[in-house]
Amino acid sequence: MSLKHKRCLTAIAVVICVGTSPLSFAQWTAIQLHPSSSTASEALGVSATQQVGYANTSGTVQASLWTGTAGSWLSLHPAGATSSQANDASGSQQVGTAFFGATSHAGLWNGSAGSWVDLHPASATFSEAWSTTGAQQVGLSIIATKAHACLWNGSAASFVDLNPVSGATESAAYGVSGPQQVGEALVGIRTHASLWTGSAGSWVDLHPAGSTDSRANSTSGTQQVGYAFIGGSPHASLWSGTAASWIDLNPAGASNSVANDVLGSFQVGYAVFTGQVRAGIWSGTSGSWIDLSSFVPGSWRQTIAQSIATDGVTLYVAGSGINNSTNRTEALLWTRPLSTAETVSPSSFATIRGRLDSGDVTSLRTDDNNYLRHCKFIVPNQTVPPIEVQVNGTTTRSSTTGITVSLTGAMSVNGVFTQMIEQWNWVTGVYEDTATAGATTVETTVSSQSTGVHNMKIGVGGALRARYFVRQTGPSASPLYCYNADLVKWVVN
Ligand SMILES: [Ca+2]
Ligand SMILES: [Ca+2]
Q1: pLDDT digits over 356-395, tens only?
Q2: Confidence class for position 339, pLDDT limits 50, 70, 90
Q3: Rounded to the nearest whole angstrom, what is the distance from the C-alpha of residue 148 to the centroid of ligand 2?
Q4: Is residue 2 in some structural domain?
Q5: What pLDDT does residue 26 have?
Q6: Residue 5 lies in a domain
Q7: Would you state the torsion angle of the CA atoms of residues 159, 81, 104, 206, taken in this order, to the nearest 10 degrees?
Q8: Which ligand has the shortest distance to the CA of 408?
């Protein structure tokens, strides 16, 4: 069996298991983890601090651990093993597989080759571990010639058999997070993406209608990713706990794709464009695909993203590609700041209605009680708000996954008032995304979040436009009220 990629239950799925965009503002950096002494390496799992996989060194495929650089490479190869591979890491723990003779054993490590703990169940003839939470591990065992998904709590004796009691004959687990385990189950002659919560009886069939074979590779604890065969090709897939929740992530122009891991709103994997396998990342929709291969320096082919993690500051994506300059498969680590939001301050404003009383555009840039103050003035009729101000800004971004514009301010007098803020749609030429809140003499903030096609809220040259307005909606202590705007800002994601 190839150690390179995940085992599959059926020959149908083997085609994608043994095989080896548009530019975005998000700045990814690729780090080459390949140890110079190795003929091949891949990173298969990543945690907040570690990357794991294998390196073929001294003629042996060896489970490997990195901490962010090629020079940090450490072999986890257990004593007595003929080959080994680490598949996932979490906290201080790594999980994977080692061959002892012809028998694959699931196992875990705590940072060194000597720390190997064999998880192989006594009743099994073969076992593999694919994922860890740092405390629980999942994988599969072959028991009486049948594959069984299984769950461990750190020891061989803790083995829990997840193989469905009825409805499926075989199974395998590839991902674990929080209370959830995911993988696949053999239903008739078809593989079905599967979800468990700790027991064989908890099995949920995630197989989407219209698919032939499907599989879940990972879970975030609430969402699951993998693939579903649609029209004969695997499509990267996202679920939220049920078959009906299935979302097709296959990017436009891709012949097929697979999602390997999920973290929060992100999914990673690969998509195939005109025969070229490209590592990529999604954020929940097929249209959100970003080609990670474009960020790798040099010339590469067959790039794959396997795993994603964060330490709260940085996003980490582990994977591999074939380096065209060495013609070797080499481990890669992509990183990006977790937050790529750009904050934009107003560059100008225009008084549409109301009397400008004090302040200027700089008053809007900081929550410092230096106000841009407008007061009620002559209005053409009672249906329009007496105070209306247009605010302009410029983003460096040409595309966005969401824009929030917020207004912080207060009324000059007591009463019942409403403050609103909206975003300009440069394509349709209307204001939309209206956010409404009450306004009092105590400063409050009202935020408008872009909906629909977010890029339509960015004009030529990165132009941003919003307007805020204030009106009386109930009794007021004075008919001549003013509004003190302290801060207007856009956050562009
Ligand atoms: Ca303030
Ligand atoms: Ca201010």
Answers
A1: 999 999 999 999 999 999 999 988 777 899 999 999 999 9
A2: confident
A3: 63
A4: no
A5: 52
A6: no
A7: 70
A8: 1
Tokens of 177: 């997070």
- Compute the distance from residue 357 Cα to the ligand 2 centre, in Å: 14
pLDDT at 21 over 70: no
- Average pLDDT rounded to a whole number, residues 5-26: 40
Q: Which ligand is nearest to the CA of 485?
A: 2
The answer on pLDDT for 433 being more than 60 is: yes
How many domains, in total, are found in the chain?
Answer: 2
Q: Which of 337, 359, 391 is a domain's end point?
A: 337
pLDDT-based confidence at residue 12 (cuts at 50, 70, 90): very low
What is the rounded CA–CA span in Å between residue 305 and residue 279? 5
Which is it for strands 444-449 and 190-196: parallel, antiparallel or unpaired?
unpaired
User: What CATH number did the domain enclosing 455 receive?
Assistant: 2.60.120.260
| 361 phi/psi in degrees, rounded to 5 | -65, -30
Q: What band does 209 get if pLDDT is binned at 50, 70 and 90?
A: very high
Give Cβ neighbours of residue 329 (< 8 Å, ≥ 6 apart): 4, 20, 40, 41, 42, 302, 320, 321, 322, 323
483 CA to centre of ligand 2 in angstroms:
13
If asked whether residues 317 and 386 sit together in one domain, one would say no
446 with 298, same domain: the answer is no
**In this structure, are 166 and 38 located in the same domain?**
yes
Q: Can you give the pTM of this predicted structure? A: 0.74
448 CA → ligand 1 middle, Å: 19
322 and 365 both lie in a single domain: no
**Residue at 3 is within a domain:** no
Query: Which one, of 90, 97, 172, lies nearest residue 133 by Cα?
Result: 90
The rounded mean pLDDT for the chain is: 94
pLDDT, one tens digit per residue, over 165-189 is 999 999 999 999 999 999 999 999 9
Q: What's the confidence (pLDDT) of residue 9?
A: 54
- Domain range holding 332? 11-337
Q: Which residues of 264-280 are buried (b: 16+ CB within 10 A; e: fewer)?
A: eebbbbbbbbeeebbbb
| Proximal ligand: closest to the CA of 345 | 2
Which structure tokens are listed for 361?
Answer: 């555009």
Q: Quick one: 126 and 230 in the same domain?
A: yes
Contact between 115 and 101 (Cβ < 8 Å): no
Distance 350 CA to ligand 2 centre (A): 17
End position of a domain, from candidates 312, 337, 362: 337
